[in-house]
Amino acid sequence: MENLSYIQANDKAWLTVIEQIDRVAPYLEDLKDHLDVLKRPKRVLVVDVPVVMDDGSIKHFEGYRVQHSVIRGPGKGGIRYHPDVNLSEVMALSAWMTIKSAVLNLPFGGAKGGVRVNPQELSIDELERLTRRYTSEISDSIGPQKDIPAPDVGTNQQVMAWIMDTYSTGQGHTVTGVVTGKPVHLGGSLGRVKATGRGVFVTGREIAEKMGLPLEGAKVAVQGLGNVGGEAARLFDKAGSIVVSVQDHTGTIYNPEGLNIADLLAHVAKHHGVAGFEGAQVINDEDFWSIDMDIFIPAALEGQITVERAKVLKAKLVLEGANGPTYPEADDILSLRNIVVVPDVVCNAGGVTVSYFEWVQDIASYFWSEEEINEKLDRLMILAVNDVWKMAAEHECTMRTAAYILACRRILVARKERGVFPG
């Protein structure tokens, strides 16, 4: 275990990152001597967030902002509001953002933030007060050339608007580029909301073609039907695939003949979950992992594909819409079973790619059409996934290891060339 005093032996998320980094060392030649820089975050900020509740009481929430690396550019990564947020998770997510930005060759490092809170238990006024106080606590660490937050689980464009406004108030002028994922009329980018799900589809389409797996008629299962899983499911359905099962926090539904995705998405928008959808049968949550499928899209939270689930999964292709959904030991089992995994650091990078486009547009005060955004996104995603596929073939390794080889080389070359101050 990496010797960081605030990391405990059961902090699986960060330990997963360390193992993934260690696995790439044999492929880095002399660059491996610099690998330790990726095993510890650049900066860790833990803040107390006191909030005046609607009843006049004061509650305290714990907030985090971690900058894992700023070697290739400002930190980039979302802010998560969730009752299970912890430091290990935020550190791991920030590291995956570092790798993700490098795989896509974006001029960013990696960062992540979060507040341990259930946002559904707060009123809209309490949520705003929480966001503004959290922003004030981390404001010295963020900025368009320092660290650029974005939405993540439990946050949205309204939260980003509050962050931008709070930060701008402190600067004395409007700073649109401090966050991405904002409302379009406040400097947000067209195509941002659907970008991650679109990237999952584009990378999946490219790899399926290389595998000789036709999308027409392919059976697809999706875990999580939010912005990522929902858009991916819609695009696979549009391509002629059959979405046979969906699992979320409300349960698991299954229809071997295929779910009506348009109706299901409307149901989820109204009822906040798949439970109660009439066009499918309810199955046991664990049975979800062994249903007949060709393509599996984990688009919920990290740590979902365990060793036991990897042993029964019937997919030919796994598209990681979520961050860190597969444990390293489970990854090994999937590889032994010849199940191709398109890793999170490339598969779900559509969001950070369009965030990069938004950042560029804010700096230039010149904005592109959604058609232009999608064309640029598709081109970068295809280039990245093809680079990873070629690297995997060259080294006879998994796509995840290949992605880490590609990213670590780019990061560590930059580290070597920048040097260490003072020398």
Q: What's the short story on this structure?
A:
The protein contains 13 helices and 12 strands.
Describe this structure in words.
- A hairpin with a 5-residue loop joins strand 1 and strand 2.
- The protein is an alpha/beta fold.
- The two termini are about 30 Å apart.
- Strands 9-8-7-6-10-11-12 form a seven-stranded mixed β-sheet, sandwiched between helices. It has a five-stranded mixed β-sheet with strand order 1-2-4-3-5.
- Helix content is about 45%, strand content about 15%.
- About 50% of the residues are buried.
Query: Percent helix among the residues?
Result: 40-55%
The counted number of beta strands is: 12
Helix/strand order = HEEEHEHEHHEHEEHEEHEHEHHHH
The coarse silhouette is globular
Using only C-alpha atoms, the radius of gyration works out to: 21 Å
Describe the main β-sheet briefly.
Answer: 7 strands, mixed
Oligomer type: single chain
Mean pLDDT: 94
Question: What descriptive keywords fit this protein?
Answer:
single chain; 423 residues; alpha/beta; 5-stranded mixed beta sheet; 13 helices; 12 strands; 17% strand
